[in-house]
Design brief:
The protein has 177 residues and is mainly alpha-helical. It has one domain. The chain contains five helices and two strands; from the N terminus they run H-H-H-E-H-E-H. It has a two-stranded parallel sheet. Strand 1, helix 4 and strand 2 form a beta-alpha-beta unit. The chain is globular.
């Protein structure tokens, strides 16, 4: 979390604009939080069962409700939806289908939340931009640093998901300094 705050600060994002939901990274047992029963409390690989933040930067539900939420699917979804509706962003950047199970789960929960939000909030039409995390950024070419890369690391100019074509992607590069 400290590294994320520092990295975002380098990009000009104020710490007060950084939100951590405080849910674990990877889960013990055979069931991921996304696939768990609605109110089943699960255990992270770090041995936690409740959301958490860091000193001077508590997680979202602590900031909003002054309590930690148990690691349940319902709480994870509710916190994500609440954070989105508190901010009502014009543009949302989210990881899309990805090899990392936590990224994949968050992407799917984000879609569930946005579906509900768009039904509830008449006239709210944010721009949603989703990108692969590991499978396209981490393991892909330096798409954000070089102009017009001509290839990717996947065969036949596709990503690891055949539904998405590399040449149909949208690139957003930071301005050169």
């Amino acid at each position: 979390m400290k590294e994320a705050i520092h990295s975002l600060d380098l990009l000009g994002v104020k710490e007060s604009n950084v939100i951590f939901l405080g849910y674990g990274n990877e889960w013990q047992g055979a069931t991921h939080i996304y696939n768990s029963k609605s109110n089943e409390c699960i255990l992270s690989v770090a041995g936690r069962t409740e959301t958490y933040g860091i000193k001077n930067h508590p997680e979202y539900c602590w900031q909003k409700y002054h309590l930690h939420h148990s690691y349940t699917r319902d709480n994870f979804k509710a916190d994500l939806k609440s954070a989105i509706t508190d901010i009502m962003p014009d543009i949302c950047f989210c990881v899309d289908y990805d090899i990392h199970p936590d990224h994949r789960a968050t992407s799917l929960l984000f879609e569930e939340c946005m579906g509900e939000i768009l039904k509830e909030k008449d006239g709210y039409f944010p721009l949603i931009l989703k990108k692969f995390g590991y499978a396209g950024t981490w393991e892909g070419p330096d798409d954000y640093y070089e102009y017009a890369p001509t290839c990717n690391s996947f065969e036949d100019n596709r990503t690891d998901n055949p539904a998405f074509l590399w040449n149909e992607r949208i690139r957003i590069r930071p301005d050169e300094k």
